[in-house]
Amino acid sequence: MECLLDEKDHEILQMLQNDFPLVSEPYKVIGDKLWIDEHSVISRIVRLFQNGVIRYIGPFFDSKKLGYSGCLVALDVTEERIDEVAEIINKYDEVTHNYLRDGSPNMWFTLITNSEEQKQKILSEIKEKTGIKEILLFSSKKYFKVKVDI
Amino acid sequence: MKSIDEKTKNILRELQNNFKLETKPFKRIANEIDCSEDDVITTITHCIDNGIIRRIGIAVKPQKVGFSANALTAWKVPPEKIHEIGSELAEIKEVSHCYDRECPDGWDYNLFVMIHSKTKEDLDNIIKNISQKYDLKEYKVYNTVRELKKSSMKYF
User: Fold this and answer.
1) Which pick of A91, A144, B89, B152 has the fewest CB atoms within 10 Å?
2) Which of B:71-100 have CB within 8 Å of A?
3) Is B56's CB within 8 Å of A106's CB?
């Protein structure tokens, strides 16, 4: 599963994670720091996308500052219903992450909505469609960190 | 919600939908909405300063960069200590997400911490160290079994 990354790949990933240059030609700035040319930087990033190391490039917004609130939702799903229930939940654009975990509850997803009504509507639809009535809701109060350090 | 003027909104919308891997990514956005590249960069910088944008950058798949043991952990932290402990756990390299959350009745584990490490053994050690260092005896560990969905929210 793990991909072989060389030192330059790691340096590029770190700069993209922590210090994306806000200038006209950001990849040129990255290349200058790493002693490689701009096009090598871009082609390495393309390769990192292709092998699945990078899954997204772009802005990360603070949902709260844009009037949205995020919550983590957890429920217990029996083994044989996992795919079926995941399909119902994942259909919503407002559901951005969903993971199967060991322990109980075992299905954990995130829900981002811009009103309490919308949140309650989606949750009650999920309850209705899955027949699972017990759903735990953890609204976010404060975030301290959202980033994978590499 | 902070009020965002139309021009900023247009720039943020393009940034969300049309940020491409190319030599001049901000120039493309400027061309799309008929403003200058400087306007785009200044607006983005401003939005980073006021916190609307957390950062420009990448999201990586933890498993692909060598983190094969991943777990969501939830800790029972006294409310008066949550800021201090949350801020310190955020500094740990293996911690990717750290949130103080409101909890339903009967659930006492208010600090949610996502941890990624190379081996299960490392993961257990990190959890043990957190427990000892901050004297947090009550916690839950939910190891990641399978990713069912991962996407980005469209705000604009």
Assistant:
1) A91
2) 71-72, 83, 86-87, 89-90, 93-100
3) no
Alpha-carbon distance A32 to nearest alpha carbon in chain B (angstroms): 14
B151, two tokens = 């996407």
A1 pLDDT exceeds 60? Answer: no
pLDDT above 70 for B2: no
Question: What residue in A sits closest to B106 (Cα-Cα)?
Answer: A136
CATH class held by domain A63-139: alpha beta
Which amino acid appears at position B77 of this protein? V
Q: Measuring CA to CA, which residue among B18, B44, B8 is closest to residue A24?
A: B44
**What is the ipTM metric for this complex?**
0.90
How far apart CA A9 and CA B51 sit, in angstroms, is 29
Token pair belonging to B141:
């560990």
Per-residue pLDDT of B14-69, as tens digits, reads 999 999 999 999 999 999 999 999 999 999 999 999 999 999 999 998 888 889 99
Which three-class secondary structure state does DSSP give residue B85? Answer: helix
Q: Tell whether B147 lies on the interface with A, counting CB pairs under 8 A.
A: yes
Assign A93 to helix, strand or coil: coil
In angstroms, the CA B23 to CA B28 distance is 10
Is the peptide bond preceding residue B25 cis, with omega within 30 degrees of 0? no
